[in-house]
TrEMBL record:
The keyword Transit peptide does not apply. Its EC number is 3.5.4.12. Its cofactor is Zn(2+). The active site is at residue 100. Zn(2+) binds at residues 98, 124, 127. The gene is LOC113396580. This is Probable deoxycytidylate deaminase. It is an enzyme of class 3 (hydrolase). One of its GO terms (molecular function) is zinc ion binding. GO terms for cellular component: cytoplasm. It catalyses: dCMP + H2O + H(+) = dUMP + NH4(+). PROSITE patterns: CYT_DCMP_DEAMINASES_1 (PS00903), CYT_DCMP_DEAMINASES_2 (PS51747). The lineage of its organism: Eukaryota, Metazoa, Ecdysozoa, Arthropoda, Hexapoda. Residues 28-166 form the CMP/dCMP-type deaminase domain.
Length: 181
């Protein structure tokens, strides 16, 4: 391409750029953080329930991500994934670290005060305690399908007493497609 042609193309591109407006179909912050919690849940090896969590500060910066799984060093193939086993020692409940706990322990900042946690499932009572003690002040959850169980009612009781705000996120769409192309 010789020089005059190049200059002509350049000014054409500039003219096109100056008339371009921003994309409108980008995902909002809340969708983004909830989608990250759901993506993290995809890492879980739990056959019955995969949970993801994402801790975010007031500047929309992510401070921690987690999913439910066994502690470091406890091999996914050696520890049990069953729950109603004859021997209590063979139940996953003794060993699994919950998604919220992992997100909080994985934090890349010392301070979680006034942060928000996005969770795919409303937190259980044990996670509620950890959330409160960490300084997180807001819980955004998607599923409340276990909310009728005593441990989840206890979570709400503790959140209410501690002044932790919680609300259900209802996504605009039930799918976000990610293509590696
Ligand atoms: O607050 C919560 C509650 C539960 N989880 C995890 C723990 C288990 O791995 C599953 C629940 O298994 P069920 O067999 O459906 O009881 O979810 C969590 O990460 N956070
Ligand atoms: Zn929990």
């Amino acid at each position: 391409m010789d020089l005059p042609e190049k200059i002509e193309n350049l000014s054409l591109n500039n003219a096109q750029n100056s008339t371009q407006t921003k994309r409108e179909d980008y995902i909002g912050w809340k969708e983004y953080f909830m989608a990250i919690a759901f993506l993290a849940a995809k890492r879980s090896k739990d056959p019955s329930y995969q949970v993801g969590a994402c801790v975010v500060n007031k500047e929309n910066k992510i401070l921690g991500i987690g999913y439910n799984g066994f502690p470091i060093g406890c091999n996914d193939d050696d520890f049990p994934w069953g729950k109603n086993t004859p021997s209590p020692l063979d139940s996953k409940f003794l060993y699994v670290c919950h998604a919220e706990m992992n997100a909080i322990l994985n934090k890349n900042s010392a301070d979680l005060n006034n942060c928000t946690i996005y969770v795919s499932l409303f937190p259980c009572n044990e996670c509620a305690k950890i959330i409160i003690q960490s300084g997180i002040r807001e819980v955004v959850y998607l599923s409340d399908e276990k909310a009728h169980k005593p441990m989840y009612i206890a979570s709400k009781k503790m959140f209410d007493a501690a002044g932790v705000n919680y609300w259900q996120f209802i996504p605009k769409n039930d799918t976000i497609v990610i293509k590696f192309t």
